[in-house]
Amino acid sequence: MIVAIDGPAGVGKSTVARLLAGRLKYLYLDTGALYRAVAWTVLQRGVDMADQKAVAALLPLTSLKMEFENETVVVRVNDKDVTGELRSPAVSASASVVSAIPAVRAWLLPVQRSIGERGSVVAEGRDIGTKVFPSAPVKFFLEADPTVRAERRHRELVAAGHAREIEQTSTEMAGRDSRDRSRAVAPLVPAEDAHHIDTSRLSAAEVVDLMMGIIAAKL
Ligand code: C5P
């Protein structure tokens, strides 16, 4: 069983996907973490992100592993645990740049699908319902007011120790979303058969309850 969840930044995808995976006892597949790990590698090696060939040339030299340890997910790049470094603003911005490179998307596709073959998963990202698991029996597309999304992302960043103004978070998020929506390969668009949920005025638990009702009808 695969539950696909897509949507822009700050819409609550990760929180809801993690809770839902816990309720269903499925694996939680955070596909953004894979794009972030590629971005981390590119930043670490000092490769120019605008140079698509140079970024593509890094991929065969990179071993990327996503390990599921109890409730937590550990991401390793060439055996180094980079999980704690993946959510910084620099990595977020770079992830949406490298994710527009077709070679990066092609490289990560089998990685994501092989995790899906391990069993039932709740997979979350931008192209899960359209490209990664197009035949997933249940698909959700989450949306929310841009102001609410910026506030959520801002609270998360401040809690993680990134001091900044909300305007900065809002501008960065808008830039990232516009890159994700306008790229040529696998842009952020809802799958035709996705259930749309506006999370602006709902708590994470309320979103999960809504989703459980829809999933229950399919099980
Ligand atoms: O979901 P998260 O914010 O961690 O994703 C980081 C970036 O990775 C996104 O802005 C997007 O550019 C990219 N991404 C993607 N396709 C996915 C998941 C993430 O392009 N399935």
Automatic annotation (TrEMBL):
Q: Which GO terms describe its biological process?
A: nucleobase-containing small molecule interconversion; pyrimidine nucleotide metabolic process
ATP-binding as UniProt keyword: yes
- Location relative to the cell: Cytoplasm
State a GO cellular component annotated for this protein: cytosol
Name the reaction it catalyses.
Answer: CMP + ATP = CDP + ADP; dCMP + ATP = dCDP + ADP
Q: Where is each Cytidylate kinase domain found?
A: 3-215
Give the enzyme's EC designation. Answer: 2.7.4.25
Extract the PANTHER family matched here. CYTIDYLATE KINASE (PTHR21299:SF2), CYTIDYLATE KINASE/PANTOATE-BETA-ALANINE LIGASE (PTHR21299)
Name this protein carries in UniProt: Cytidylate kinase
